[in-house]
């Protein structure tokens, strides 16, 4: 399970960083979202990966660490708000700058005239 | 009752922000009054905390009465109190200045401003790493909105870079926290410090990786060399009062580096790596920012590069690590923050009297109030270039005295050359603005009373910091001594039975990955 889990986190991070380095705002935002998923999964695993272990004392023989779950929840909420904000910002930048290139360059295929 | 007052620097702006956001129907005057009152209240509270902390007292507050390693603690030592006071003083000047009309160019300026203060104050108060992340996010979210206050192409373009870069930084911050939590099993700074001190082998390597990741994130906020390219454009695009407040944003990164370095990682192998990186990147930042100061074609960009010079100076001083060096940088820090803030406000005042030419360094029409603005510009230029008789010179002198051995060969020439660059650039800017102008001024863009009050409030710090140089530098030195003895904080917060708790910790370790 550990190998699969780390593979998933690794692939998500790599794809996220690849997309983050693209020139258009849409891939960049998708990249940020993927990076956020990778980070959340990673945080989730910092308490150790257990099966059949509830995060409540007395429910199972060795309870899971509840703190990473609380941290992930916070990170998800913050990440969600940030993604919403950056989507709106990208739309605004597209209309103000006339291009969805992150540097505001225009004149490429798909730009507003 | 009195022990709850330590939460006030977070509560006042939070409640104030809610009131200001809800009262969107209230008149501008009402909201301005409320905002100024809130900032004045924060100045008073932070002065009170400063006077408590000056006696060497450590104040702790366990939120929800959850005891230390388990719950979140707020902590006030000399460093936190100093940063809180600096934030409050800077914010009051910015709010006064914004009340002249800048705040009416977009919606909810004052509410967002208070939220930003809440994030800043919280980041300076908290003693918990994850809580630090949360307060960072609060201050960043507010700063995104403030940066784009009033809109416009330039701001949106700069804002997009700033937001995306900081989101990537936040992801990295979480990775660092995950690594550190996985290795130590705690997020409380004091508890983590105690645990990393006895680690070895694989766990110690993980801690080193986590520590360096954290420093990368904080360097992004502090704008250290490979990570500063976002700053000049962002700061030059921001509205003047916001840019002035942003002068403290780079210092949040510096504070966070100083805090984790002095409290948590000082005894670990990571400490040596951190100081080496900070030293060389700090020096390179000074060098490149000095070139940037000379190359800038606009006063706002010029001031942004001056902010970078001060960041490089402070971080190189931090890397020296001795009590003298930390004391010197803590004396220099309030001065440089307030001087850069004041310069942003003065740049705005100059720009509004020059019509189309704005703050660009080109011939423009003659300023209407050239004596007033010229005088203020002169004081600010002398302060920021670090010339005597103002506090910048003293701060640099203290820092240069604190460097020893071969470090002198690097820091002295760079620091002095950067000062020279600032001097040349500021004299050039001043002569363009005040002498190389067309005849015939237009009576427009008169400096209003709140604008003058805000700019003078920040500018007054430079002579005051010289007048009270003795007490301020004593305080800075005491702060450095307090930072050099992290065991005191740890034992005060967690009690003095480390052996017992270590045993407990090693038992726990068997179960964690």
From TrEMBL, chain A:
The chain crosses the membrane at residues 6-21, 28-50, 70-91. It is found in: Cell membrane. It comes from the Bacteria. The keyword Lyase does not apply. Pfam families: Oxidored_q2. It is a multi-pass membrane protein. Keywords: Cell membrane, Membrane, Transmembrane, Transmembrane helix. Belongs to the CPA3 antiporters (TC 2.A.63) subunit C family. This is Na+/H+ antiporter subunit C. It comes from Halomonas alkalicola.
